[in-house]
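Pipeline run #58 for the internal structure catalog. This entry was flagged by the ingest filter as a single-chain record with no existing model, so it goes straight to prediction. Upstream metadata was stripped on purpose; only the residue string is passed forward. Reviewer on rotation: M.T. Logging verbosity set to normal.
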Amino acid sequence: MSATDRFGDVRITEHRHGDDLLSAGLGLRGLAGTTTAFAQPASPTPAELRRRAIQASWKGIADLGPLGGFGTVYGGVPDVPGREFTAFATLPGAHAPHRVLVQVPDDFDRAKRCLVVTASSGSRGIYGPIALAGAWGLPRGCAVAYTDKGTGAGYFDPVDGSGVALDGTRAKAGTAPLEFEPKGLAPDAGIAVKHAHSGDNPEADWGRHVLQAARFGLAMLDRAFPAEAPFTAKNTRIIATGLSNGGGAVLRAAGDDEDGILAAVVALEPNIHVEGRGRPFYDYATEAALLLPCALAAPEFDGLPFARVAHAAPPAWAIRCASLRAHGRFVANTPAAQASEALAMLRASGWQDDALKVGASSTSLDLWRAVTAAYASAYLRRPADGMPCGFSYRAQHTAGVAAPADAVVRAAWWADGSGVPPGAGVLLAGGTDVSLDPTLPGNLCLRELWTGQGDEVRALHAGVAATAAALPRAGLPVFVVHGAQDGLIPVAFSSDPYVAWLRASGRSPVYWKVPYAQHFDAFLAFPDFGDRHAPLLPFGYAALDRAWAHLSEGRPLPEDAAVRDARPRGPGALTAAALGLPVR
């Protein structure tokens, strides 16, 4: 490990005989089933929390439904016994720790030493990428090193001064090291969330988080197999992989890898940007939050899932048009003309129609506002009681209003939370009014933090600029796999300009732009939505296969055009022919 790496005590657990690394003993059927219960709901055991966190992580990423083809057409969940090594890690200069975890299968391949290093998607916790990195690496005898990259659901509740201990259970500050322990919060400050409130702008360090997890992985292999130590980047092939924010994190690691420890990088649907190319997520997400609800009223979106309810545009779309007209954002006077004007504005700023159509799902679920509220707080390094635009996180009472957290709900936060409320019994409060368009004030404020003037705007821009990617070293195999119809992280703003930049800089990435694939494989279980799209996860597995064949057997890297034959799943079950996966 680097002399600057700082790790706390390492917790070692064994997972065999009905409890394994990949599914906590649930298997595919259990992962796809109802949420696992706790014997004592207010005080779950570490094993129960781990099982539920793994299940939630699988269901948040993969389409495990009966039509999705997982376990029959691609993928699988074999029993993988082994050990886990977990610790809190801290980067030099950081205020808050983050969580690292290494899974070492009992059948680790000592002849072809392999370590997969990965980072959580979105703002999820430590098991967030298990459906990609764990599902590919563990059955092949690779160890897998995870980092939550400064995100996760280690929520701190100032009402009782409790946070999350290393084993996932809740503990009071001062009684055990906590995943996140902000200082000086008043009891009424609201729930403190690590990504939004650590004061570190963790996204700026996502590449360093991944590299630190890789070094932790090598060190834990030394512990697991002391007779065969040391494990180093020279005798152990290290493949970095992740999706969404995790995909961006591994590409950031490729640019930060001054010591050359990564052997290959496979990034799925990466949230990545290069200074001066494309658009940062905060820019286009705040724009979408403001304009896309109105644009969705246009006839171009008729018949699309999430854009229509019972074949009609929801009233909220026309209300947003009228609200923006009242704020002087539109010239048009009629709802139809306002929708067309909003659509034209989005197209003029680089949005492609495929991304806009699929972006209806993120709009309908209010994801744009939820994510950008958290990101604004992180970029501005705000505490829980000082979030921008009047936002805060509050415990949700069963009646749907803010109230002190219920002990049963609070106990499950670490397993159930996505790292960005609302969800798992935590509300996103503030930024609203009592009008017919209650979320507009918050969305306007978040957008103006990007487009406006003043010290706060400059600070937010600086926070975003710190997240730009650096150039990977020459010769590093880099795979970028992205859905052509991604509506959350559109290729036009992310992978397209990133890959073009690599090629203009003399690099040779493999770029698979997958037809009909969008951002959320888990959404393919929704009626009608899955009929129109192809899953992305099998192409991620295939890219990892090709990267490993290149490293271990010397096979040439594949062509970009290798995935052009993918097509929508259709109304029936997924078939191998629909995927059109390239042969090895």
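catalog note: The radius of gyration is 23 Å.
catalog note: The CA atoms of residues 524 and 565 lie 19 Å apart.
status: ready for reviewer M.T.
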